[in-house]
Amino acid sequence: YTLSAISAFPPSGLQLLNRDSFQNRYDYDVVVIGAGHAGTEAAAASARLGARTALLTTNLDTVGQMSCNPAIGGVAKGQIVREVDALGGLMGQAIDATAIQFRMLNRRKGPAMHSPRAQADKKSYQNHIKWQIESQPNLDLRQETVEDLLTEPSDSKDPQESATQRVVGVKVRGDAVYLAKTVILTTGTFLQAIMHTGEAQSAGGRAGEGTTAGISGALHRLNFELDRFKTGTPPRLNARTIDFSQIEVQPGDDEPQPFSFLTSEITTSQMPCHIAHTNEAVHDLIRENLTRAPMYSGQIDSQGPRYCPSIEDKVVRFADKSSHQLFLEPEGRQTQEVYVNGISTSLPRDVQDAMFRLIPGLEKASIMRYGYAVEYDFCPPTQLWPHLESKSVAGLFLAGQINGTTGYEEAAGQGLIAGLNAARTVAGQSTWVPARQDAYLGVLVDDLVTMGTDEPYRMFTSRAEYRLLLRQDNADRRLTAQADQLGLIDAPRRDRLAEKLEQIRIGRELLAAARIEKSPADVYLRRPEVTWPMMCELVPELNQIAPDAAEQCCIDIKYAGYLDRQQMDVDKQQRMSEKRIPVSFDYNRIGSLRTEAREKLTKVRPLNLAQAKRISGITPADLALVLAHLEH
Ligand code: FAD
Hints:
The chain is α+β, with helices and mostly antiparallel strands. The protein is built from 21 helices and 23 strands.
């Protein structure tokens, strides 16, 4: 299971397949491989657009499964969930229906930093997603293991199309093929995956599951570049064996805020989480056993997520810290399993057991699942167009962890974009991707296809240059009208937005008309100490404005100066984005272009000057040369 082993895969010859030679043959517009977070959103989006869609996944009992922590959202990730929801995706409603605790992070900071996060009842979440998929018209969910991608030479004469191959379907285990006009690959951490716990290694993309080798072979045969990443997960404990009296309680918010713009209120009861701490004795134990940690023994040499380090990593990198927080998160209402957030590890089992003996409250804790690390193949995403279609194989889309990202939310967002664009491609429509100034999802896909990633990519607010505009509270105002035009949403969501916009309009009118202390009420509201409840006392008509619309009125008015300035930056950037570069543009024509710039531009093939500017190592002088040639 090493990269070099891939070349040993025999060429399957299936690209020359006689389509009629398979007894079991199914025809679809879009086939999605893998029903994780990317695959389920991709399939749902494609089917909502009317494309006949098949979602093929190895095990129907793991649809929408959370491989790692039982939580959705968090800083920048919560914003993505709100965007997925605003575009008609599944994730927001699923977590609202199944969460056991809600918290709005960074409440003390400005609204751009407010980030919703919720603990999920893991099994219920998964069942909810599965039910949504099963109930979706135009969508067939099937238990199938995909073994190969079927392609044929591309016959396109379109100079805008760079692909030399075209996908025509997939072959599954057991002599059956699914033919399709587009295929979306969302196999997560399963490609040639190896799990590590101490010295022990086994093949598999997630504990208790197998690995996928055929798809790596197919990608290799199709000349895709593949690389390796690793990620890890912590042990799970039995709550019965934890002494909760010794550890701090972390309750949910008193007024839980839903993720979905369609959920009016959260009425379910919330469960508490708890916070424990590591100590010097634990750190000493880890240091003594570092040679047995696959990361340090040389057993793993691929890159892991820098911002989600294992406990052995933390002890080495932050050697001066005498303690780290451990968040004990229940995995659901009907299980005693507790996820220990903060202690991801691939140390051997005996060391994992011994670590807990040294932590107050967890001395007697019994591990139900040991932590492990997993190494897997991913496809460097500069091989994709922004709409997530391969540059070399037409009709083949890639979304989720296979593109080098980490996280359920990043996967879900990419899935939605891939599903939407696969269905639009089948319908002969132009592709659609949100711009960086419109959504974190725009930042995500642009970062991936323009810069690639040399470590598992997760979203941060700092990745977005216009984050004052990209708030969790306004994702519907930013995206739902576009989703409506694209056919992604239905009447209740459309009506909900219209109602909210109308309420905002009325609120703004009332504020402009009323006077407080001789100045217009909206000017008075700008004062930092003035809140909406105070305004309602002074202008009682404002009581008719619903809380979500009131929040928008407040933010629009209080932050008007900052928002206007950011909008001016957006407009400036927009002018560069309008300077389009043809796909077939030949950078070799620019004799004076530096070799590094020529190579990078040829590899990424930016679609406009603004994207070219974001490629690392491209200088203003390179851009000036490209611009000069574009204008000739
Ligand atoms: P997945 O959710 O992995 O879904 C892939 C799907 O494809 C699965 O349903 C699988 O059965 C199916 N599949 C695979 N091969 C085939 C095939 N040949 N045919 C049919 N179906 C197939 N993220 C974080 O943000 N933080 C973390 O700390 C973190 N830790 C992780 C630890 C572990 C051990 C793992 C495995 C993942 C971790 N992740 C973490 C990542 C997170 O789980 C993923 O980012 C997210 O699940 C990716 O979603 P996805 O849809 O791309 O893939």
